[in-house]
Amino acid sequence: MELVLIFISAALVNNFVLSRSLGICPFIGVSKRLDTSLGMGLAVAFVMVLASAITHTVYNLILTPLSLGYLYIIVFVLITACLVQVVEMYLKKNSPALYKALGIFLPLITTNCAVLGVLLLNIELFAGSLLSAVVHAVGAAAGFTLAMVLFSGIRDRLAYSPVPKIFDGIPIAMIVASLMSVAFLGFAGMINL
Amino acid sequence: MMKALVRFKKGILDENPIFSQAIALCPVLAVTTSIVNGIGLGLATLAVLMASSLVVCFIRKWIPPQVRIPCFIVISATFTTVVRLLMEAFFPALNEALGIFIPLIVVNCLILARMESFASRNGPLTVAFDSLGMGLGFTLSLSLIGFVREMMGFGTVFGVVVIPEVIPRNTLMILPPGGFLVLALLIVGFRFIRKRGA
Prior knowledge:
The structure holds 2 protein chains of 2 kinds.
Chain A: H1 2-13, H2 24-29, H3 34-63, H4 72-94, H5 96-102, H6 105-108, H7 113-125, H8 130-158, H9 170-185
Helix pairs in contact in A: 1-8, 3-4, 3-7, 3-8, 4-5, 4-7, 7-8
Chain B: H1 2-12, H2 25-31, H3 35-59, H4 68-90, H5 92-98, H6 109-119, H7 124-154, E1 156-157, E2 160-161, H8 176-197
Antiparallel strand pairs in B: 1-2
Helix pairs in contact in B: 1-7, 3-4, 3-6, 3-7, 4-5, 4-6, 6-7
């Protein structure tokens, strides 16, 4: 039951993009088309979940016993970078179609603050339990993908709307994001973790 | 020297990281609920940007091009760790308020973009002024957004009440939607002023 609550909290109540303001760059940058935003969401989800499991284990079994906790930033970033590299090489060899579809977004996952944000929050909130941390990552990934897909649907329509020229591009996208964020405020207070 | 000063001005105005390039937006939206937070994160980012750009600039000849991005990330992670430990020791309250956004400086697109596109190709003096300009441009933008949100949300500036209590506060401004909205309107304002000036 607690795991379900963690999942819902990460996906909806504390949505990474719309409530925690993490991962805004791909949210604004890659959301012009539905298929790319879905691909980006899934790639981020994969890295997020795997990196959560690895960094949580490394932090608890290697860094803490050696009292090297303060090195966590470097270690987490390096693990994410290696993981993205491995995923990239694997996809290139075994699934060239998906590799081509993700293109430049794949290496950019390394510097996606939603990914590092999940890893940092895992340590802060669920230091003791690996399972909770992984569920938290799955929820965060689901929330990220959901926000990306919803946003790209709206932006599809936006391309045909008569937007004042000075609002064109980023500003109007931000205003749309603001309204979506208001909608997600409706989930606030639903769960207190 | 002249080129260095031009870079400095570019960072604050023409190529302002937030209002003109619209990069590094995550910390911008999350921490700018007050001016103090904005200035704090801005200066922390400036320190990391400056130190890592200079290091990249000095050792660029020894970094193999194929692995330059991991090298850049390790360099900025090192300085982020230093800044985080310093903040924890000397500004514990600010460190608490900024939370995970201090460690997240390491993946700030602004820092990686400057290392990749500028610091690895130019001399130390130009690089120093470029980071100073970009860092200050970032800090000023963060403070401006923080100023607007703090004034509308809490009715205060630097924690001092400036709007009389009878006028209701707009709490939405200090919640995430307010961040998106204020940023959108400030970008429009920035574009408008630049257009009038040109």
